[in-house]
Amino acid sequence: MTLWIKNANIATMDKARPHAQAAVVIGGFFACVGSEKETEAYLSVHPQEELETIDCGGNFVMSGFNDSHMHYLHYVRAQKTAVDLYGCTSLKEVLSRMRRALEQDYDPSLGLWLTGEGWNHDYFTDEQRFPTAKELDAITTEYPILIMRACFHIGVMNSKAMELMNINKDTVGQYGVYAETYPDGTPNGVIKEGVFDDIKARLPMPGCEQLLEMMIDCQKDLFECGITSIQSDDFKYCPEGHAYEMMALLRTAAEKGRFKLRMAEQALLPTHADMDEFFDKHGFDDSFGNRTFKINCVKLLSDGSLGARTAYMRKPYADDPTTRGIAIYEQEELNSLVLRAHSHNMPAIIHAIGDGAVEMCLNAIENARREMPHLRPRHGIVHCQITDKEQVERFKELDVIAYIQPVFINYDMHIVYDRVGKELGSTSYAWADYIRLGVHAPFGTDCPVESFRPLPGIYCAVTSRDLNGSGPFLPHQILDRETALYCYSAQGAYCTGEENIKGKIKEGMYADFIVLDKDLVSCTDMEILEAKVLRTFVNGKCVYER
Ligand SMILES: [Zn+2]
Ligand SMILES: [Zn+2]
Fold it and tell me: Which pLDDT belongs to residue 105?
C-alpha cells in the first residue's frame, strides 16, 4: 500500500528541510517528502499500483510523539484495576473515594487488593499529611487496601494488608525509615521507597496473558493523543518473577501485528542479582525484540521525589532542615551497577531528582566512561530536576541524556522554592540550558505520575507556566515551539539508537506521523492545550481517526 499525503502543513523535524506540503509513504516508510509537485514527480518515476491519497485539508502534520519515560504497564493496570485518587483535595475525599469503590466496584472474588492511586497530601485542604492505617481500617479490615501517592514512592496500607505482608510491631523495625510507626511503635501503614516497591511487586495481580490483552487494548488511548512511540519501565509491574515471560509475550504480539505501539523497555534491574538474571541467566541485552517492541536500556533509581522530600539533596531541605532526602545507593554501589550495564554496551538510565542524586549519577557515568572508554552506550538521567550550573555542564562533558518531563513544573513550580530555596531552584529544570549545550533532552511524562497527554507538556515547555497560566516560573528556560516538538519526537528516537529511522518526516524513516487541527508552531499558547489529534499513523497505517 502506498499513501500520497497532500495538502499538508508538515513540520518535518529535518533541519535540512523543516517544512513540506506532501509526502509519499511506501510500505511503512517515507519515500519522498517535499512539495506537491515534487511528490507528483516522484510518483511518475515510481508508479504505484495501489495508491491511496490523503488530503490533509491544510492541517498540521508531524512525526508521532515519543514519550521517553513512562510506565505503560502500570498505567494499564491502574486503568483497569485501581481506584483513581488523582485530584483529591482532601484526606476525606481519598477515604470516601476508596469507600465508594469498595461498595460499588470491588470484586473480592478476583483475589486482588483494593488499591488506589494518585493522592497527594500537598493538595489536601483539610490536613496536609499522609493517611494512616487506622483511617483505612475504617473503610474495611476484611479486605487489604493499599493507596499510593502520586509520586509512587509512598503508600499507605490498612491493617489487613499489613497482616498479609507480615508487617507488625515485631517486624517493622527491620524496614527502618521505610516503614513508619505510631508513637507506640506499631506500624501506621505508611511505607516508602524500596519497601513500597517490594510490596507493590508482591500484590496479587492478573496473569501475563491477561495483562498483555490489557496492554493491547490500551494502545488506543495513546494513539488518540498522537503517541506512536514510548519508552517504558515495566519490570516491577509484571507479575512477580514473570518479567521475562511478559517481554516474550510483547515481542510475539508485536511480531503478529497485535501490538502496534513502538515500545522500548527500560528494564529496571536494581541489584547485581537482577543483572545476573538479565544478562547471564536469560542472555538478554538490547538486541532483544524487533522494530515495534524491544529492550533498550537498564533502568535504576537513585532517589525519591521532591514532593515527599525523599529526593536526595546535597544540602538539607530549606523547609525541613532535618533531612536531605534518601539516596538509594552508596556511590560505590551505583558505580558498579552502571559499569555493569556499560560493560554490556547497554545504556543505564537513572532516576534522579535531587542535586545530590544527580551528582552521584554523573559520577557513576563518569566512572563507567573512564573504565571502559571503548564502549559508548547512551546513558541518561531521568528527571534531573534539581541541578546547578556545573552539573548541567557535566551532562554535556559526559555525554549524558537528560530525560525531561516538562509537565512536572505544573506542580513543582509551586513547591520547589520552599523545598530548595530560590537560588538552587532558579538553576533547576534547566531545559533550555541542556539544549543550548547540545545535550540530548527527550521529553516524556513519567505516566501515570502525570497523564501521558503530550500537549500539556509542550505547553509547559514553551511557556514555563502551570496549566492554569500562572508564571512564568523560569523565563530563561522557555523553549521555542520547534525545539519542544523536536524534543518530543526526534530526541526520543536518539535514546533508543533510532535517530536515523524514526522521529522525523524524511525519506527512509518510519511513517509514524500524526495530523492535528492546530499548527503547533504558530498557534497561540492556549490553542496548544486545545489542539486535537485528527489521525495517527504507525508504520504507514492509520491506527486512530477522530
Ligand atoms: Zn522516576
Ligand atoms: Zn518513572
Answer: 75
The ligand whose atoms approach the alpha carbon of 236 most closely is 2
The ligand minimizing its distance to the Cα of 266 is: 2
Domains of the chain (ranges; CATH) run: 1-64+503-546 (2.30.40.10), 80-202 (3.10.310.70)
Taking every pair of Cα atoms in the chain, the longest distance, rounded to a whole number of angstroms, is 83
pLDDT in tens, 17-29: 999 999 999 999 9
Phi first, then psi: give them for residue 176, nearest 5 degrees.
55, -135
Residue reference for cell 497560566: 469
Length of the chain, in residues: 546
Report the C-alpha gap between 102 and 98 in whole angstroms.
Answer: 6
Quote the mean pLDDT of the chain.
96
Q: What residues contact 109, with CB distance under 8 A and at least 6 apart?
A: none
384 CA to centre of ligand 2 in angstroms: 12
Q: How far is the CA of 301 from the centre of ligand 1 (A)?
A: 7
Map residue 84 onto helix, strand or coil: strand
Q: Beta 380-383 vs 401-403: how paired, if at all?
A: parallel
Closest ligand to C-alpha of residue 447 is 2
Q: What Cα–Cα distance (Å) separates residue 158 from each residue in 133, 146, 182, 205?
A: 4, 7, 14, 18
The Cα–Cα gap between 253 and 247 comes to 10
Distance 419 CA to ligand 2 centre (A): 21
ipTM above 0.95, yes or no: yes
Q: What is the pLDDT of residues 511-520, one digit of tens each?
A: 999 999 999 9
* SS3 letters across 212-269: HHHHHHHHHHHHHCCEEEEEECCHHHCCCCCHHHHHHHHHHHHHCCCCCCEEEEEEEC
And the C-alpha cell for 162? 499489613
Distance 302 CA to ligand 1 centre (A): 9
CA of 52 to the centre of ligand 2 (A): 40
Confidence of residue 462 (pLDDT cuts 50, 70, 90): very high
